Amino acid sequence: MNTIEVKNLRRIYRATTGVIRRKVKEVEAVKDVSFDIKEGELFGLLGPNGAGKTTTVKVLATLLIPDAGEVRVKGLDIVKDANEVRKQIGFIFGGERGLYWRLSAIDNLRYFASLYHVDPEVSKKRIPELLELVGLKGRGDERVQGYSRGMKQRLHVARTLLHDPDILFLDEPTIGLDPVGAREFREVIRNLQSEKKTILLTTHYMFEADSLCERVAVIDKGEIVALDTPSALKKHVRDLSVVEIETFGIDPKVIDDIRKLPFVDALSTREQDHRQLLLVQTERGAEAVPDLIASLEGMRIGRVTVREPTLEDAYVRLVGGKA
Amino acid sequence: MNIITKNLRLFWQGTVLSYVALFAWFRPVTYAASKILMPLAQIIFFTFLGSYASGGTDVDFYVIGNAIQITAVSGIFGVTMSIGGDRWAGTLPYLFGTPANRMMLFFGRAFMHIIDGAFGVVIALGWGALLFGVDFSHTDFSALGLTIIVTTTSTCGLGLLMGCLSLITANVMFVNNTVYFLLLIFSGANIAIDTLPNWMQAFSKALPLTRGIASARTLIAGGSFADVAPLLVSEIGIGIAYGILGYFLFTWFELHAKRKGTLETV
Question: What percentage of chain A has pLDDT greater than the value 90?
Answer without folding.
Answer: 44
